[in-house]
Specification:
Number of helices: 7
Number of domains: 2
Distance between the termini: 44 Å
Number of strands: 19
CATH topology of the largest domain: FAD/NAD(P)-binding domain
Oligomer: single chain
Shape: elongated
Order of helices and strands: EHEHEEHEEEEEEHEHEEEEEEEEHH
Helix content: 10-25%
């Protein structure tokens, strides 16, 4: 077994509600690790609509989704939470009272007294490109995420897509790959204008290639891609030699392995009580859009409320003999000390 990471709480999902749970748990001295399938924190807010305005956060008339995530990350800094990104929880088993063992697809093993599921509508899954047989190359030469940049050093890469992820990795990998070709179906990009300008500068300097069209087939053997056949927008076909393909065609939401964790489910949502947002398995909580109860509203502010109530019950599992005293951050010197307030 790999080295076991031990923690008070494991939070599955690093969106706004999962991040705020770190704050509420920290106030009652519960330490947390967070696991998320994405390569950055923020969940849907950061991945799908970072510039989307949000108007219903109390006391903040207007904030962008990414701005909210940035503020939450600053707020939890005093508690030293550790994030494990590009990791999907594959299995969960109960091994004590209370104690859970969790394993991820990246080979990590956690042991935690409590589990908090804050996975939104489920886990993000990459959209597979519509190329016959592409699944035979996945994990070996087709990669939907970059775990270690050095894995691509010196390789011929084909990066497909026109959003932020495709351009970010084109820019980041251009300096270490043997060669990078960016493939997109049209000349317009959905990425940040600055990224587009930097990418076009690399194209003009002949440091990378830009091909407009769509991949129609791949060739290779034993899971190793050798070339991709592309139907270009001008009607011609091209063969692009490559060692690895990185498709970034967006993400889709799937419940994923959560459905197999032995929890009571209701149409792919997790029923919880409204006292502490605990599931039918003691020690496992569900907060945010993943849960359901009478009167549920799928709002970020509702998830914040759920995180606050959850933390009180969670602390009893971590400190069964300790009396948890309710305190206000505005007046409690001990809470202010935890927050680093002068």
């Amino acid at each position: 077994m790999s080295d076991i990471i031990k923690t008070d709480a494991l939070i599955v999902g690093a969106g706004p509600v999962g991040i705020f749970a770190v704050f509420e748990l920290g106030l009652v001295d519960v330490k947390a690790h967070l696991v998320d399938i994405l390569d950055k924190v923020g969940g849907q807010c950061a991945e799908l609509y970072p510039e989307k305005p949000i108007y219903d956060i109390p006391g903040i008339p207007l904030v962008t989704a990414q701005g909210l995530v940035d503020g939450l990350m600053a707020q939890i800094k005093p508690f030293g939470a550790q994030f494990h990104l590009n990791e999907m929880v594959e299995s969960l088993e109960k091994i004590g009272e209370p104690l859970f063992r969790v394993k991820t697809n990246g080979g990590k093993t956690f042991e935690a007294k409590i589990i908090i599921i804050a996975a939104g509508g489920g886990s993000f899954q990459p959209k597979r490109p519509p190329i016959p047989g592409i699944e035979h190359y996945e994990a070996k030469s087709v990669h939907y995420a970059v775990r270690k940049m050095d894995d691509f050093r010196g390789k011929k890469l084909l990066i497909a897509g026109g959003g932020d992820s495709a351009l970010d990795w084109t820019l980041n990998l251009a300096s270490i790959a043997g060669h990078v070709t960016l493939l997109h179906r049209r000349a317009e990009f959905r990425a940040a204008p600055d990224s587009v300008n930097k990418m076009m500068a690399l194209v003009n300097d002949k440091k990378i290639d830009l091909v407009l069209g769509q991949a129609s087939s791949v060739e290779g053997k034993d899971g190793q891609i050798e070339k991709v056949i592309v139907k270009k927008n001008d009607g011609t076909a091209a063969e692009i030699a490559c060692d690895a393909v990185l498709p970034f065609f967006g993400l889709t939401m799937k419940l994923g392995p959560i459905a197999n964790w032995g929890l009571r489910m209701n149409e792919e949502l997790i029923p919880v009580d409204t006292e502490a947002f605990e599931t039918d398995v003691p020690g496992i909580f569900a907060i945010g859009d993943i849960n359901t109860y009478a009167g549920k509203l799928k709002l970020i502010l509702s998830g914040f409320h759920e995180a606050a109530l959850m933390s009180r019950k969670a602390a009893h599992y971590v400190y069964p003999d300790k009396k948890i005293v309710f305190q206000y951050t505005t007046s409690s010197t001990s809470l202010q000390k935890k927050l680093g307030v002068n």
